[in-house]
């Protein structure tokens, strides 16, 4: 039985859009929804009414995505806006992320589960600092496919040399980040060129339109090629007359394939057992694959609780010492010595920030001193010590079990998104100070 996800009418693509302020990102998303016939009549009527009230003759398609009142008043995107639409060939979940630098953290949220990122640039301005920042975030989060949408080609006379220069500069920078799949598309979101329909003004471009690429880019992966990881979310013990001895472990398979008869290791305890049965949707099954939610039964009665991880195949070694690349999301700085909570899959433990090793300069990819800690939107490298051992894969090997969150223990707010291991092999320089002494909190 093949579990590879194919590009069919039932396939799902999660993608995120990002771009600097006024590059036309909301207009692009609105055009994509409008021209793909994914806008309801009442939605379009509301946009037309709002546009007329502003004195505009044509509908402002950006209003289809700028849902917050503050966004409409300022003409910018502030929060991540999720849109769901479909074509005959594929279903889509779109995360429209903000362009302002102070909202870069929102792109981390939107792109964390994306399989493709659309990075928008204004053809008149080319690659700017925020473009490089968005490319770096996409690379950091291991988004496998990136599209460079060179917008407002109508304002540069649909000139091929302008497009070629921007595409070459961006592709070189993306390659330095380790991004392997980059497609550049010249578009005009306002006029609709190469968004859904091919442009009559750019016959020199022979590639797909944006929608054609979204419909055909390979998505998903073969779960059988990944090691099985099953974070336990809940232990089911009915203890009824019908099920007096039933003990099942419920959760969502984070990666891989799990079969009846597979040997598994319980982490972090290291206990071993064998899969005795799998229940899905109230029925027994012989196999489950990511991202199915199932209940797993084992041949042995082991001490397993929420937060434990069932691993089949090669398993990560549990450790209390974690090195990770992080994106800081909170206005409160993250500094060495901070006491935090670390949430990994279904497990939350106390942790100490032993060291902020360095910050990454997005423009040059050089390491800067982390002595002052990380401020909002900073990307850097940290060393952590946890109170209990955790079984983390490297993020480059497994996006689900290689990621974690740092949480403020005082009020529960999210501070930092973490990815186990190094982010970019090309990061240069090393200004990291020596680690401070370990504290008693862990």
Topology record:
Layout: E1 12-19, H1 25-35, H2 41-53, H3 69-74, E2 81-87, E3 90-96, H4 104-111, E4 116-122, H5 129-140, E5 145-151, H6 160-176, E6 182-186, H7 210-216, E7 228-231, E8 234-236, E9 248-252, E10 257-259, E11 263-267, E12 271-280, E13 283-285, E14 287-289, E15 293-298, E16 309-312, E17 319-328, E18 339-344, E19 347-360, E20 367-369, E21 379-390, E22 403-407, E23 414-420
Parallel strand pairs: 1-3, 1-4, 4-5, 5-6
Antiparallel strand pairs: 2-3, 7-16, 8-9, 9-15, 10-14, 11-12, 11-16, 12-13, 12-15, 17-21, 17-23, 18-19, 18-22, 19-20, 19-21, 22-23
Helix pairs in contact: 4-5
How many helical stretches?
A: 7
Using the alpha-carbon principal axes, give the shape.
globular
* Stretches with pLDDT under 50, minimum 5 residues: 1-9, 68-78, 431-442
Rg is 24 Å
Characterize the largest beta sheet: strand count, sense, and whether it forms a barrel.
8 strands, antiparallel
**How do the helices and strands follow one another from N- to C-terminus?**
EHHHEEHEHEHEHEEEEEEEEEEEEEEEEE
Model description:
- By secondary structure, the chain is of the alpha+beta class.
- Strand 5, helix 6 and strand 6 (182-186) form a beta-alpha-beta unit.
- The protein has helices spanning 25-35, 41-53, 69-74, 104-111, 129-140, 160-176, 210-216; strands at 12-19, 81-87, 90-96, 116-122, 145-151, 182-186, 228-231, 234-236, 248-252, 257-259, 263-267, 271-280, 283-285, 287-289, 293-298, 309-312, 319-328, 339-344, 347-360, 367-369, 379-390, 403-407, 414-420.
- The radius of gyration is 24 Å and the shape is globular.
- Strands 7, 8, 9, 11, 12, 13, 15 and 16 form an 8-stranded antiparallel β-sheet that branches. A 6-stranded mixed β-sheet has the order 2-3-1-4-5-6, sandwiched between helices. A 6-stranded antiparallel β-barrel has the order 17-21-19-18-22-23.
- 42% of the residues are buried.
- 17% of the residues lie in helices and 33% in strands.
């Amino acid at each position: 039985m093949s579990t590879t996800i194919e590009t069919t009418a039932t396939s799902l693509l999660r993608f995120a859009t990002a771009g600097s302020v006024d590059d036309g990102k909301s207009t692009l998303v609105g055009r994509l929804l409008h021209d793909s016939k994914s806008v309801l009549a009442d939605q379009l009527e509301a946009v037309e009414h709002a546009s007329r009230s502003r004195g505009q003759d044509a509908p402002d398609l950006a209003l289809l995505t700028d849902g917050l009142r503050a966004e409409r008043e300022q003409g910018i995107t502030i929060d991540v806006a999720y849109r769901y639409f479909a074509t005959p060939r594929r279903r889509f979940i779109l995360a429209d992320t903000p362009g302002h630098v102070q909202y870069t953290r929102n792109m981390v949220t939107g792109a964390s589960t994306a399989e493709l990122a659309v990075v928008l640039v204004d053809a008149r301005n080319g690659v700017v600092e925020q473009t490089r920042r968005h490319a770096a975030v996409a690379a950091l989060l291991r988004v496998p496919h990136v599209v460079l949408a060179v917008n407002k080609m109508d304002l540069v006379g649909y000139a091929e040399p302008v497009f070629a220069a921007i595409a070459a500069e961006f592709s070189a920078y993306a390659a330095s980040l380790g991004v392997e799949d980059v497609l550049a598309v010249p578009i005009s979101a306002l006029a609709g060129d190469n968004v859904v329909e091919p442009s009559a003004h750019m016959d020199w471009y022979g590639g797909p339109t944006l929608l054609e690429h979204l419909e055909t880019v390979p998505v998903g992966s073969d779960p059988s090629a990944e090691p099985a990881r099953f974070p336990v979310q809940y232990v089911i013990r009915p203890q009824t007359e019908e099920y007096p001895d039933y003990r099942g472990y419920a959760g969502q398979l984070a990666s891989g394939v799990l079969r009846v008869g597979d040997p598994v290791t319980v982490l972090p305890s290291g206990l071993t057992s064998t899969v005795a049965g799998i229940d899905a949707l109230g029925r027994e099954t012989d196999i489950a694959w990511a991202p199915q939610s199932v209940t797993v039964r084992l041949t042995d009665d082991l001490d397993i609780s929420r937060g434990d991880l069932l691993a089949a195949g090669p398993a990560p070694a549990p450790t209390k010492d974690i090195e990770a690349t992080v994106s800081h999301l909170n206005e409160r700085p993250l500094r060495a010595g901070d006491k935090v909570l670390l949430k990994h899959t279904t497990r939350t433990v106390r942790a100490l920030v032993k060291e902020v090793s360095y910050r990454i300069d997005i423009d040059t990819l050089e390491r800067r001193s982390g002595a002052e800690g990380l401020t909002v939107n900073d990307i850097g490298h940290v060393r952590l010590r946890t109170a209990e051992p955790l079984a983390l894969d490297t993020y480059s090997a497994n996006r689900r079990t290689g990621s974690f969150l740092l949480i403020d223990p005082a009020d529960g707010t999210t501070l930092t998104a973490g990815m186990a291991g190094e982010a970019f092999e090309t990061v240069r320089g090393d200004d990291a100070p020596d680690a401070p002494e370990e504290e008693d909190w862990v």
